[in-house]
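ingest -> validate -> predict -> emit
validate: passed (alphabet ok, no gaps, 201 aa)
predict: started
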Amino acid sequence: MAKLYFQYSTMNAGKSTVLLQASHNYRERGMQTYLLTAKLDHRAGAGRIASRIGISEPADTFDPSSDLYAKIEARIEAGKIACVFIDEAQFLSEEQVWQLARTVDDLKVPVMCYGLRVDFQGQLFPGSAALLALADEMREVRTICHCGKKATMVVRQDETGNVLREGAQVQIGGNESYVSLCRRHWREAMGDMPKERRAAE
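emit:
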């Protein structure tokens, strides 16, 4: 039975690696997949999903105006696919998440979405919020804070390493811009720890 999946994490947890490996597993068994990524993220080149460990695959792209149900339906008409993979799913709109849900329900194709859960201010991305509400199954892709605890948050830094507390929700970047932290160390970086506690620790 087809399902809508959401695999979420903080930055640098290996989401793209997991996506590419899962797609490879399908193709190794002779089944075709359809890969999509956000048009605005072109760090690896336009229309490309790339992992930090050096593997990559070409992908179709989406932007806020894309009708994903129509794109997937057209791709199916061109040839059978076993699964749809969406990278950078946090950039989906709520309506696009509904389009993916309809794809699963009406076209009977599983859709696997990979993305960030929260932004650098600890707020849900719209696409992630919709996926948390609508996905049939969810899984956290884990990474760790510098203290060894599970990282659940991310901070944004400027070019000199200073933590930014304000700014646009969307700013494309990698290790040079973002650091994944546990909640406690995120609060500390954002200036949300009592002064006496920070001094004692």
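The longest strand covers residues 4-9.
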